[in-house]
């Protein structure tokens, strides 16, 4: 009996210990917006968009003002984030062929996490779907890069045409008058509320907003129309010529403003739910965007432009700062001291290496992204980091950009429009608007960075890296 009792005590202790270990792992929420520019928040300087909930989140965590997306368009940027690799293939790759050892979501699964993905996936179907990639559950996550309408029935445009791709789940759960971002937030909250108390979770809420179609609730449009009348834009023109088209220079679209503010309201709803559940102190919150705001059109004709990224140059599709600089806030109460990091250079492919490091102290090999855990803790600074971008699949017809490669190293950024052999050099610390080209006055610095860029391209823009996932898919 004494032997049995001792064994029961041992088993009970083992179970309690493992339960406590499971409970001690932090929950993680990633809030990922679509097409939200760096200056589309009141915190970062917008005079029109009111975002008190997101602003508060930024002030309660580490606010990185030198954060970037991995690419200036949706799919490659998201691929870079999910895989922690440079998206040199410039498409959705083939997630289903990524080895388990290099799959971040499966590492979280192994660590005992429930993993949820809600909203825009846009990275494939079949074995490249969100659930096959490793997420425990998903909602409204399919091939669609956008939603046909922000209002129920969602998959039909206001003109009555069906969407190119169907966003799953939303029509069966929606009702007349429902708004898409509200529904996605509801689904995320439900996942979190239903998650077992003894299991940590990783939840991604990927809004389809503020991507087109630019549709907002009437009450939000009306409010912003009144606010726009009171904004003095001075001598700032509404548009200027740029590249193959125009660039919007004012934030004056009332419906777009309403979309931004609705995202802010839903961020507030989600964060309030975390507080009500009593799990705020053990939850890491990450907020960011996939690239800059839609501010440019191309030679195909004038299109409805959403926002201006001023004082940043250009926007979505471009490798100027307006196309790739994004908001990035990371909050973890009692673990990360709130502050603004104005120096460290962070990129989208660093997200999952960092979260895995924070939550499990594990690392994934053979990726390009790095954990910035020590930066978050204030023990390191990445101001001298070197990062790269390559955009071969330019869209002069829709966003006005041309084929471009870029390197940023420390304060300096070199842009190479390689088909036209044009080089531009900027000191971003002194010239955030990229207005003063230094390539002629600092030829040695331009030569140094050009050499770095050529070396990176020689290593990365080869079939072995660009097409290896496609080849694996064919086998």
Description:
By secondary structure, this protein is of the alpha/beta class. The chain contains 15 helices and 16 strands. The strands form four sheets. The protein has an eight-stranded mixed β-sheet, sandwiched between helices. Strands 13-14-15-16 form a four-stranded antiparallel β-sheet, covered by helices on one side. A hairpin with a 2-residue loop joins β7 and β8 (245-248). α7 (180-194) runs parallel beside α9 (254-276) and α8 packs across α9.
Short descriptors:
four-stranded antiparallel β-sheet; disordered C terminus; 475 residues; 16 strands; alpha/beta; single chain; eight-stranded mixed β-sheet; Alkaline Phosphatase, subunit A
Give the SSE map.
Elements: H1 2-24, E1 27-33, H2 52-59, E2 62-64, E3 67-68, H3 74-83, H4 104-110, E4 114-119, H5 130-133, E5 137-139, H6 170-173, H7 180-194, E6 201-206, H8 218-229, E7 239-242, E8 245-248, H9 254-276, E9 283-289, H10 321-324, E10 328-331, E11 339-341, E12 346-347, H11 351-360, H12 373-376, E13 386-391, E14 404-409, E15 412-417, E16 422-427, H13 443-460, H14 463-466, H15 468-474
Helix pairs in contact: 7-9, 8-9
């Amino acid at each position: 009996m004494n032997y049995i009792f001792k064994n029961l005590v041992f088993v009970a202790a083992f179970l309690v210990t493992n339960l406590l270990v499971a409970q001690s792992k932090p929950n993680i929420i990633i809030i990922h917006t679509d097409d939200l520019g760096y200056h589309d928040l009141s915190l970062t300087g917008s005079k029109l968009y009111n975002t008190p909930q997101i602003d508060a989140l930024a002030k309660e965590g580490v606010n990185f003002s030198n954060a970037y997306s991995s690419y200036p368009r949706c799919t490659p940027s998201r691929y870079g984030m999910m895989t922690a690799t440079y998206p040199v293939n410039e498409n959705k790759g083939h997630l289903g062929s990524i080895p388990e050892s290099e799959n971040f979501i499966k590492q979280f699964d192994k660590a005992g996490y429930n993993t949820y993905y809600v909203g825009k996936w846009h990275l494939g179907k079949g074995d490249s779907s969100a659930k096959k990639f490793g997420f425990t559950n998903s909602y409204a996550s399919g091939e669609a890069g956008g939603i046909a309408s922000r209002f129920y029935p969602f998959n039909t445009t206001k003109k009555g045409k069906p969407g190119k791709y169907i966003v799953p789940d939303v029509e069966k759960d929606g009702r007349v008058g429902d708004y898409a971002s509200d529904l996605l937030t509801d689904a995320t909250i439900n996942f979190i509320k239903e998650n077992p108390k003894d299991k940590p979770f990783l939840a991604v809420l990927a809004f389809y907003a503020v991507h087109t179609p630019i549709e907002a609730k009437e009450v939000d449009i009306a409010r912003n129309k009144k606010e726009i009348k009171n904004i003095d834009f001075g001598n700032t023109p509404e548009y200027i010529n740029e590249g193959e088209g125009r660039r919007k220079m004012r934030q004056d679209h009332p419906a777009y403003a309403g979309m931004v503010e609705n995202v802010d309201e839903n961020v507030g709803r989600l964060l309030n739910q975390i507080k009500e559940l009593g799990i705020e102190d053990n939850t890491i919150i990450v907020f960011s965007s996939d690239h800059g705001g839609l501010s440019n059109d191309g030679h195909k004709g004038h299109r409805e432009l959403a926002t201006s990224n001023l004082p940043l140059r250009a926007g979505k599709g471009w490798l100027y700062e307006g196309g790739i600089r994004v908001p990035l806030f990371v909050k973890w109460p009692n673990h990360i001291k709130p502050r603004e990091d104005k120096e460290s250079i962070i990129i989208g492919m660093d997200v999952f290496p960092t979260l895995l490091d924070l939550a499990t102290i594990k690392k994934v090999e053979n990726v390009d992204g790095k954990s910035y855990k020590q930066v978050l803790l204030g023990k390191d600074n990445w101001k001298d980091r070197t990062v790269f971008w390559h955009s071969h699949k330019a869209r002069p017809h829709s966003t006005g950009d041309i084929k471009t490669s870029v390197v940023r190293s420390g304060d300096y950024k070199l842009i190479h429009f390689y088909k036209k052999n044009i080089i531009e050099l900027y000191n971003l610390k002194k010239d955030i608007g990229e207005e003063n080209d230094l390539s002629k006055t600092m030829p040695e610095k331009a030569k140094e960075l050009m050499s770095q860029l050529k070396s990176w391209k020689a290593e990365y823009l080869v079939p072995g890296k660009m097409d290896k996932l496609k080849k694996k898919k064919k086998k």
